[in-house]
Amino acid sequence: MEKYNLTCIMCPLGCSLVATKDGDEIKVTGNNCQRGEIFAKEELTCPMRIVTSSVKTEKGVKSCKTSKPVPKAKIFDVMKEIEKLRLKDAKYGEVVIKNVLDTGADIVITANE
Ligand code: SF4
């Protein structure tokens, strides 16, 4: 049986979780709500993260992020896709890459200016 100590990142409470894995069975303790159990199980099977970065435009650098978490293993490849972009301009909320690397997540501009 493998044991993992995790901190839930799904809300500011940051519950300390203990996940135990026995074959395909994962048990989670320390969570104050169901989201913590889902988070811990995902961390042990397919960890996901929101990616934040910036896009180069002719009017300067604009911050961006993924519209939803992507597999942790694809973060660097997603960053490379963002780095390839050269835009004239980009507005807040604009999707600059749709379904990046078939993750189901879009790259969205988060800069207000
Ligand atoms: S387990 Fe629930 S209450 Fe605890 S940090 Fe995660 S989301 Fe928040």
Topology:
Elements: E1 2-7, E2 16-22, E3 25-29, H1 34-45, E4 48-49, E5 52-57, E6 60-66, E7 70-71, H2 75-84, E8 86-87, E9 95-97, E10 107-109
Parallel strand pairs: 5-8
Antiparallel strand pairs: 1-2, 2-3, 4-7, 5-6, 6-10, 9-10
Iron/sulfur cluster is lined by residues 8, 10-11, 13-15, 31-33, 35-36.
Could you explain how this protein is built, in words?
- The chain has about 110 residues and is α+β, with helices and mostly antiparallel strands.
- The protein folds into two domains: about 1-45, no CATH class; about 50-110, Roll (CPE0013-like fold).
- The chain contains two helices and ten strands, in the order βββαββββαβββ.
- The chain has helices spanning about 35-45, 75-85; strands spanning about 1-5, 15-20, 25-30, 50, 50-55, 60-65, 70, 85, 95, 105-110.
- Strands 8-5-6-10-9 form a five-stranded mixed beta sheet.
- It is elongated, with a radius of gyration of 17 Å.
- It starts with a strand and ends with a strand.
- Iron/sulfur cluster binds near residues 10 and 33.
